[in-house]
């Protein structure tokens, strides 16, 4: 069997993602533990927090519940990790994983009860730190923590995917599905338990030696850990670094977070250096760059943007920066580095590691893996009384690194002319990028496909739809990529599509509609080429044409026109585009239109058969294969889509007659398309005609007339 590097990386990324499934719970429970400790601290709340008071009793009970995920972490991983690996029936896979993990531990308990001394384990002693034993669901077993649970969970998920659909005789039907998977798991766990009784004690000794090495490696260890955690994030492998440290046994029993919270009151009443009290906490300083470093990077990108674009760039960067600082969620900013200028991300990893090492050098330790909320709740508030000077130094050094980030990033962006947001050409798009877009870009580079907004969207949409193997059929209409998928469960959440530039997603079983907009023909072309695994010339040539086309027209006057237009100049009236009964777009029996995914607008239940221009405009798009939709660009910059009927794309142009042409300059009332209402009705489709202003968000002053009968080319329906 040949070694496939890409396949291995994909599986590692998938493994890292599966491990993250239970981790999403830790933030809430960690903050709750910290708050309960703070509120029961007599140093902060005096006699109110003394034992025996109702206040203390309440927070004591809250704290016991908040320890749930930390005290039962192996079980949590045994249940949650299979969810990330299961290809189907994730809930049943989680149940199977729990049962198989329990069987595994019961087998180990039985073996050690009879022959513990043979394996070098004193099974007669009580389970606890340093004994090599732990209590898992009232089972005294080997202390393998989350590592053992993850290993068994992976086996459980494999057995589920391999045996869940196994056909067995009807008379054994009761053993189908989960029962069969668990039965196979039962047989597999017996030799697995015996194997672990042999190998785990030496592994445990090795972990202890590794812990000692890290504890004694000091500042260098902290630097190397933080750098590794940041630099592996793009590949999705950073989970392998921080999980064993923060939640596992890499440097202390139970992980840094649990240990820190358990001893928070002890640290809060000692004036000794935090680093001396808890040296392992240096490995949880990696969140410092999120709080102090990224604001400097964001500020550099803002000041490097073109002056006329700074306001727009600020609207992108401010929310992303606040999210990073408060919550520690850094994807929008960090993946923008990766997308437009990977060198900035490397510099970020180096600076983040240097910041952590510097803070550790001054004596800082604690749990600073998240954002500012973690800083306050788990560190500053409960410990400030005895460690105020350390925290003041931390803030001073952190702000110093904010300045360093700003200076370094600004120099690199200007010196190398890096295309960060706000520095693109006038026709370019200013945005922050997501992990999905970064992965799509790397995939396109492997295939030799040139960059471009539409090509990138196609790759992201393909990935989010489950990849080529999950696509059964692809078509498109004027605004939507219509896809039939094999497995709807493989389709990503709507936010993944909208973050990549889609207006929305409509799911109806296996039928998926990605609301792309008027650029859907270009996106469809790239999508088809990617499906075939081609390196399409069309995909590479389409994007430059769309960027260069405006330049071929008289660019200078166009620019002047944009500058000179004020709100009064943009004011105009749109008249009825077909005769009939006017209704609001929210009443259209189609989710994509009624939910205004394509923009706000109106619709008309037609009594005539000809669509006319609602105002003076340029014909910007014609759905030539079906003639059921046309796009117009109005003189005030508004972009209008007129869509005749619902699902009429399937008529392939039958019953439609085009009365204009691409790029034609039309006047209000000029005929655009004639349609046969009887043919539409005979085909079983609704003939309602919709007009959506696709960039309606740029026109908050837009007003729509009330429902009423209208006459084409005469009755006003929309006022800007």
TrEMBL record:
Protein location: Cell membrane
Annotated keywords: Cell membrane, Kinase, Membrane, Phosphotransferase system, Sugar transport, Transferase, Transmembrane, Transmembrane helix, Transport
InterPro entries: Dup_hybrid_motif, Glu_permease_IIB, PTrfase_EIIB_Cys, PTS_EIIA_1_perm, PTS_EIIC, PTS_EIIC_1, PTS_Glucose_EIICBA, PTS_IIB_1
Location of the PTS EIIB type-1 domain: 455-537
Keyword ATP-binding part of the UniProt annotation: no
Active site, renumbered: 477 (phosphocysteine intermediate)
Domain PTS EIIC type-1: 6-425
Ranges for domain PTS EIIA type-1: 590-695
First and last residue of the signal peptide: none
Record's protein name: PTS system maltose-specific EIICB component
């Amino acid at each position: 069997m040949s070694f496939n590097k890409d396949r291995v990386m994909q599986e590692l990324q998938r493994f890292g993602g599966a491990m993250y499934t239970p981790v999403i719970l830790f933030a809430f429970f960690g903050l709750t533990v910290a708050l309960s400790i703070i509120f029961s601290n007599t140093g902060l709340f005096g006699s109110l927090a003394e034992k025996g008071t109702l206040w203390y009793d309440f927070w004591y009970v809250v704290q016991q519940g908040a320890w749930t995920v930390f005290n039962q972490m192996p079980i949590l991983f045994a249940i949650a990790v299979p969810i990330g690996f299961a290809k189907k029936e994730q809930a049943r896979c989680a149940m199977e994983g729990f049962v198989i993990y329990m069987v595994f531990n019961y087998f180990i308990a039985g073996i050690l009860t009879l022959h513990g001394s043979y394996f070098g384990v004193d099974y007669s002693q009580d389970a606890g730190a340093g004994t090599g034993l732990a209590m898992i669901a009232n089972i005294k077993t080997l202390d393998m923590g989350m590592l053992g649970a993850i290993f068994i969970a992976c086996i459980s998920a494999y057995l589920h995917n391999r045996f869940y659909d196994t056909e067995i005789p009807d008379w054994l039907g009761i053993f189908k599905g989960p029962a069969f998977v668990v039965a196979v798991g039962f047989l597999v766990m017996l030799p697995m338990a015996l194997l672990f009784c042999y190998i785990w004690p030496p592994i445990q000794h090795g972990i202890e030696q590794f812990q000692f090495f890290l504890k004694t490696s000091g500042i260098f260890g902290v630097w190397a850990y933080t750098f590794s955690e940041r630099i592996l994030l793009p590949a999705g492998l950073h989970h392998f670094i921080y999980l064993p440290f923060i939640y596992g046994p890499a440097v202390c029993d139970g992980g840094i977070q649990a240990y820190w919270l358990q001893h928070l009151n002890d640290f809060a009443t000692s004036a000794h250096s935090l680093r001396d009290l808890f040296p392992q906490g240096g490995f949880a300083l990696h969140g410092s760059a999120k709080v102090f470093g990224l604001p400097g990077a964001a500020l550099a990108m803002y000041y490097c943007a073109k002056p006329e674009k700074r306001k727009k760039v600020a609207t992108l960067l401010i929310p992303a920066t606040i999210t990073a600082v408060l919550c520690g969620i850094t994807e929008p900013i960090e993946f923008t580095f990766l997308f437009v200028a990977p060198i900035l991300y490397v510099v970020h990893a180096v600076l983040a590691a240097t910041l952590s090492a510097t803070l550790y050098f001054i004596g800082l330790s604690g749990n600073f893996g998240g954002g500012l909320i973690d800083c306050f709740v788990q560190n500053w508030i409960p410990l400030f009384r005895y460690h105020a000077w350390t925290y003041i130094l931390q803030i001073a050094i952190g702000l110093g690194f904010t300045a360093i980030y700003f200076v370094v990033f600004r120099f690199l962006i200007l010196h190398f002319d890096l295309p960060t947001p706000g520095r693109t050409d006038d026709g370019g798009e200013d945005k922050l990028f997501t992990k999905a877009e970064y992965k799509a870009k790397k995939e396109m580079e492997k295939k030799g496909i040139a960059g471009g907004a539409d090509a990138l969207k196609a790759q992201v949409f393909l990935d989010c739809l489950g990849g080529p193997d999950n696509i059964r059929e692809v078509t498109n209409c004027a605004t939507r990529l219509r896809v039939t998928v094999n497995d709807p469960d493989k389709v990503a959440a709507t936010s993944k599509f909208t973050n990549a530039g889609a207006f929305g997603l409509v799911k109806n079983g296996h039928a998926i509609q990605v609301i792309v907009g008027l650029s859907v023909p270009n996106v469809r072309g790239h999508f088809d080429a990617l499906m075939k695994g081609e390196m399409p010339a069309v995909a590479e040539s389409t994007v430059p044409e769309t960027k260069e086309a405006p330049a071929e027209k008289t660019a200078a006057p166009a620019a002047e026109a944009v500058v000179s237009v004020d709100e009064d100049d943009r004011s105009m009236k749109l008249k009825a585009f077909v005769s009939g009964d006017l209704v609001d777009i929210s009443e259209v029996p189609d989710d994509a239109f009624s939910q205004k995914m394509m923009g706000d607008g109106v619709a008309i239940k037609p009594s005539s058969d000809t669509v006319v221009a609602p105002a003076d405009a340029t014909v910007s798009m014609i759905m030539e294969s079906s003639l059921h939709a046309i796009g117009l660009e109005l003189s005030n910059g508004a972009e209008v889509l007129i869509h005749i009927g619902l699902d009429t794309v399937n008529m392939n142009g039958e019953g439609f007659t085009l009365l204009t042409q691409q790029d034609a300059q039309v006047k209000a009332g000029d005929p655009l398309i004639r349609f046969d209402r009887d043919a539409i009705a005979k085909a079983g489709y609704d003939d309602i005609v919709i007009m959506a202003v696709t960039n309606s968000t740029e026109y908050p002053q837009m007003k729509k007339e009330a429902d009423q009968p209208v006459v084409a080319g005469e009755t006003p329906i929309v006022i800007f």
